[in-house]
Structure formats: structure tokens, C-alpha cells
Amino acid sequence: MATATYSPRLKDAYSELRPQRPEELELKSIMQVPRIEKITLNMGVGDAKTDAKALDAAIEELTTIAGQRAQVRRARKSIAGFKIREGMPIGARITLRGDRMYEFFDRLVSIALPRIRDFRGLSPRSFDGRGNYSIGIREQIIFPEIDYDDIAGIRGLDVAITTSAKTDEHAFALLRSLGLPFANQGENQ
Q1: Which of 121, 106, 111, 122 is CA-nearest to residue 144?
Q2: Are 155 and 140 in contact (CB under 8 A)?
Q3: CA-to-CA distance for 80 and 160, rounded, in angstroms?
Q4: Phi, psi dihedral angles at 93 (to 5 degrees)
Q5: Using only C-alpha atoms, what is the Rg of the chain?
């Protein structure tokens, strides 16, 4: 008796879209079609220099959001103006790949982003010139996994979506086809 293996919804959607992409993007081969390689979540915790519990709370929240243990990030340089010494813990990060990446992307697009107050779409200007996209989220409470009553304070996080696209236009087409809601749906401003 064979059991059915689980595959994330967006991964299946991508595998259906992929054969149609070479003609649309004017590519020669299906292997040139861009794909999402990884998603990196980063949460800076400025209070960690004075309050160790703030860093623990941030790690716990990021772990809950992503479903994977967060890494502690330490300062690379000492900065006297910010009272930071080299090696002090100052943040947390997670790199998602594979099925967890697709699951997080699906939750981000279908649940978290619509919960942002006065949301009108993401800026198409946040590409870095090499096909990668960055989103700054001001409140971690937009994710349904976070219990509003249990958090100590509102914290923001950065989401970096790394794609295999060579140009921003190809990455834009990929992310839009996977459901990322851009403002003005495609007008690169």
C-alpha cells in the first residue's frame, strides 16, 4: 500500500506554470525559467544589548512563524555610538528552502499580507537589480501563529526572497504568477 506524499500547494502551482513560462519570458529552455531558491527572515533586536529576554522572545516568535529554529546573529563590529561590542547577540534569522519555503510563502501571500492594515499591495520597486525581492514587515502580529496576548512588544522583520532570475522583470513575473500582490499589478514604476 503506497501512501500519498504531501506537496505544498504553491509548489504544485509552480510546476504547472513552469512549462508555459519559456514562451512568455522569451527564454530558450525550460531550465532557464526562474524559481524561488530561498526565503530569508531576519529580525533585528536592538533591545538585546540590555534585555536578554527580548532576544529569546524574538527567537521564539521567529521560530513560531517559520516552523524552523532561528539562529542568533551576533555583531560583527563594535559600534560605540550604539553601545554594541563585537560578538554581542543583536538579532535572529532563518533561511527557508524546499517545502517549508513554499509553505511560508503561501501563508505570507494568502493570510499574512491581507491582514496588514490599509494594505494596497507591495511596491514593485523593492527588487535589488539581480532578481531578488525584499519586504519589510512592521508588525509580527500579522501572522496568525503569533498570539497577540503573549507578545511583549511589537517587532518588525525583513523577508528576502531570493530567486534564480537574472533580471528584475523575470523575477517580477515569477512572483506575480505565484500570487504576490503588487501595487498597480505590474507597472514597474
Answers
A1: 111
A2: yes
A3: 29
A4: -150, 155
A5: 18
CA distances from 44 to 19, 35, 38, 94 (A): 39, 28, 20, 12
The residue type found at 76 is R
Place of cell 500570487: 179
Q: Using CA atoms, how far apart are residues 43 and 182, in angstroms rounded to an integer?
A: 23
Helix 9-17 with 98-107: angle, nearest 10 deg = 100
One-letter amino acid at 25 equals: L
Q: Are the C-beta atoms of residues 121 and 182 closer than 8 Å to each other?
A: yes
Strand order in the sheet with 36-44: 71-74, 89-96, 36-44, 157-163, 133-137
pTM, two decimal places: 0.85
Per-residue pLDDT for 148 more than 80? no
Cα dihedral across residues 120, 126, 93, 89: positive or negative: negative
Q: In this predicted model, what pLDDT tens digit does every residue of 23-44 receive, in sequence order?
A: 788 888 888 889 999 999 999 8
Nearest to 175 by CA among 184, 166, 165: 165
**pLDDT tens digit string along 8-21?**
888 888 888 888 87
